[in-house]
Amino acid sequence: MSTSNICLWTTLALCVALGGCDVFYKQEGEEVIMHCGDADLDQGFKWKHNEALLVGVSKSGVPSKGTSDLAQRAKLNKGMLKIPSVKTVDAGVYKCTGNDRKTIQEHRLQIVTVSVSPSDTVLSSTEVTLRCDVSHPSSVQFQWMKPPGAESYGSPGENVLTLKSVTSADDGMWTCNITENEKVVKTIVVRLSVAGPLKSQEEVTAPPGGAVELPCFLPSPIPLTIVEGGWKRDPHTDLKFPTLNRDDGGLRWNGTQSRVEFSSETLSTDFSVKLNDVQPSDAGVYVCTLKFKDGQSMNATLNLKVVTGAPVPPPDRPVVTAPLGGAADLPCVHSGSGNLRVVGGKWLRKPPTDTPLLTLTTAGDGRHWNATDALKYKVEFSDQQPSSSFTLSLNKVEPADAGVYVCSLTFNDGSDWSSEVELKVEEEEAKVSKGVRPPPETGGFWEKPLFLGLALWIWVAVAAGSLLLVVLVMVTVLVQCRTKRKRRRAEKNKVHMPSSRELVAMQTECPAQKTGRQPRSGMKDRPLPPVPKHQYKQII
Fold first, then answer.
1. Matching InterPro entries, A to Z (predicted)?
2. What does the alpha-carbon distance between residue 320 and residue 328 come to, in Å, rounded to a whole number?
3. C-alpha–C-alpha distance, residues 237 and 414, integer Å
4. Which end of the chain has fewer CB atoms < 10 Å from its terminal CB, N or C?
5. What is the rounded distance in angstroms from the CA atom of residue 16 to the CA atom of residue 10?
6. How do beta strands 342-349 and 203-206 pair?
């Protein structure tokens, strides 16, 4: 750094310490806006970056602009300087000066960068370096936070973190917190993707003449592109394995069928093969290899042990144990053989019930599971098209669900294949004795389907609602009938009240009869008393 830059940053550091400067921490591509402070904009002003002119306006309103790339990208808005997308070279000191040279507003722009080497997507067991930098660190501190809980990782204050051998536990979003004066001024997040490891078994055993599966798989899909791979025996023999190749249709096995069976489907995570008619000379070490587009590769190794002279045992029936009220996954894996394709299948419960649970059908858009009415509220399966895994999940298992389940598949040549699995349900007493608390009841009897696939509680609610509606209708009808009866009774008992005109007519037709008494001299006749209301009809 030149002497002028050292002096500039030293002066600015003092300015920041005294609270007279604003400091902006930005990543590349972010926007920054700086204010000109108390400068009199009507008198003109200039913005400079490290003493180089960016933009300005004269007292007469004539704009001026520098020649640098930053000056071409900078924009003015009523004295405010706006840089829409900052670059690393934009770091430095920004100064707004009024034309009276009495008002100066200074700012500091720090560009923050984060990097992962050799790449943000690496293979398992690779050494990875995470780096978090600031253009002019000065007094800032760094702290790396590890996923998934974002707990502190590494030494406080260090901006470089080295992971010697990454695993799947290191996969996720890593966070770099930048602090200045014990205050977090910037947080940067970087994604680290860990692919693999490629898994297999340490050892598999097979008798002479039998068959054995050589497992090789990835725990989950990875973002790296697999371009080729395959199996080989170490040391090499005449046993021919297929090779992995990628074409327009995806990643597939390429080879001819011999004693090695392989899937004809598009592959993603499962690269297992099956070795038939095992010979004593087949014993040894087998290596499964995947090669990626960037030149990296990963391997998985297993040892095949051939037990000489032993009879071929029947296939072991796997046993799945589930807690009462819990869930159970019943495995069924078959990748096909050579050119054979799975076109149908089903899951069923063995005697005494022989209850079908799921059927696998082939339509124009691929294979799909269709659930039957039996145990429909318990059976769970993926909506995705099954390719090699036809696993069935049972929820809320009960003691009555224990037994043997059969997964059967049908291939395009008409042949069939089946696999059995036994389900055992832990009774509540057994779990209590083991110190395991049984799961709480979550519906049970009320959630069982009664009719049309609807749970019992739904039908009870519909019945109660219907009964309440009938009662409301009956009450409404009774109230209306009672109101009508009262109205008729009131009209029947109503008495006719003559109007004032009728009363005048009545008095005209029936003049008042005078008595024989004559009034005294100088006195008027006393009027007759009014006729009572109940005598109106008699008068009329």
1. Ig-like_dom, Ig-like_dom_sf, Ig-like_fold, Ig_sub, Ig_sub2, Ig_V-set
2. 7
3. 34
4. N
5. 10
6. unpaired
Task: Looking at 54-167, list the stretches that DSSP marks H as alpha helix, in order from N- to C-terminal side.
Answer: 69-73
Look up residue 245 and give its two tokens: 């190749």
Q: Identify the helix (H) or strand (E) that includes residue 231.
A: strand 226-234
Tokens 């034309």 — which residue? 99
First to last CA, the chain: 129
Task: Give tens-digit pLDDT for 117-155.
Answer: 998 888 988 999 999 999 876 788 899 988 876 778 887
Residue 8 has pLDDT above 50, yes or no: no
> If we measure between CA atoms, which residue out of 216, 246, 225 comes closest to residue 121?
225
Tokens of 364: 């124009």
Tell me the CATH number for domain 3-111: 2.60.40.10
Domains 3-111 and 118-195 belong to one CATH topology? yes
Q: H or E stretch including 487?
A: helix 456-492
pLDDT score of 239 more than 80: yes
Do residues 128 and 141 touch, judged by C-beta distance below 8 A? no
Closest CA to 356 of 376, 340, 337, 339: 376
Architecture of domain 319-433: Sandwich (2.60)
Q: Which CATH architecture has domain 118-195?
A: Sandwich (2.60)
Tokens of 194: 């860990």
What is the β-pairing status of strands 183-195 and 172-180? antiparallel
- Hey, where are the domains in the chain? 3-111, 118-195, 203-306, 319-433
What's this model's pTM, rounded to 2 decimal places? 0.51
| Bridge partners, 422 (sequence order) | 319, 404
